[in-house]
Amino acid sequence: MSEKIQKANEEDLQQLRRMLSRVASRDPEAVKRRLDRLAKVRPGNDELRVLDIACGDCREAEVLGDFVAELKGAPDAAVKLTGIDVRAREIADAARKFGKRQGPREGRGRRDFEFRTGDATQLDEHAELGADFDLVFLRHQNYWNGARDWEEIFDHALSKTGDDGRLVITSYFDQEHALALEAIQRLGGELVHTEFNEETRALVTPGKSMDRHVAIFRRKK
Ligand SMILES: C[S@@+](CC[C@H](N)C(=O)[O-])C[C@H]1O[C@@H](n2cnc3c(N)ncnc32)[C@H](O)[C@@H]1O
After folding, report:
1. Which of 4, 46, 64, 171 has CA atoms 20 to 30 A from the CA of 15?
2. How many alpha carbons fall within 13 Å on the CB side of residue 195?
3. Is residue 28 classed exposed, middle or buried when 0-12, 13-18 and 19+ CB atoms within 10 A define those classes?
4. What pLDDT does residue 100 have?
5. In Å, what is the CA distance from 189 to each residue of 4, 44, 91?
6. Does pTM surpass 0.90?
7. pLDDT of residue 38
């Protein structure tokens, strides 16, 4: 990878980190939980669980670990992240990059990573994954590239989201984001917040940019 691309990727991750932090502050329940937990003498050390669907090489793995800890008001919590993608080569890259485990450091808890090759339209076949994830994440969802498959993926994503958990998506395009918002709400997601990312980096294709939009959902009660 050229130095220029590497630098752009690193900047994209930093702006993703800032964008997710803004989103966490727009979620009233998450804000309340955070304040309640931070008010305790020592925030919880329980393990939080993240499912990153269609994660590609999952370069956002560390950002997501920190985000879920912030969202849940437990900055030093341990986090287990599971990434799944249909492309075996990308999954092998993710596993190489992040290994299996990182110890606690700089005030944050342990991180466990697990990457799987698999078809997310068949997520129910991965029963061992369990449900009740604190965060289910889809970066650059690809609704335009097969609406039926992506509706199945959204449906599974919602079914893996815990009662107090959140589903977060980002999108490359305006129209694709609007279509995904409509589909996820129709499938049982309640939109908490959506926003355009002012810091988004334009890509070569007109109208396409990195993490151009973000939206956060909970499951309808
Ligand atoms: C636009 S890319 C986004 C990749 C990554 N999340 C990112 O932001 O760089 C869409 C991803 O969806 C994955 N994908 C498409 N259909 C899938 C399926 N049925 N199950 C799992 N992954 C799928 C592709 O392999 C690809 O990595």
Report:
1. 46
2. 17
3. exposed
4. 84
5. 38, 28, 28
6. yes
7. 64
Task: Please report the pLDDT score of residue 45 as a whole number.
Answer: 52
Question: Which residue has its alpha carbon closest to ligand 1 atom 12?
Answer: 54
Q: How many separate domains does the chain show?
A: 1
Which CATH number fits the domain that encloses residue 88? Answer: 3.40.50.150
Question: Ligand 1 centre and the CA of 136: distance in Å?
Answer: 14
Strand order in the sheet with 133-138: 101-102, 111-117, 79-85, 48-53, 133-138, 161-171, 213-219, 189-196
- C-alpha 220 – ligand 1 centre gap (Å): 25
Q: What is the pLDDT of residues 20-66, one digit of tens each?
A: 999 999 999 888 877 777 655 444 457 999 999 999 999 999 999 99
Parts of the chain with a pLDDT under 50: 41-44
**What phi and psi, each to the nearest 5 degrees, are found at residue 125?**
-80, -10
Nearest-atom number in ligand 1 for the CA of 52 is 6
Question: Which pLDDT belongs to residue 39?
Answer: 55
Specify the pLDDT at position 42: 46
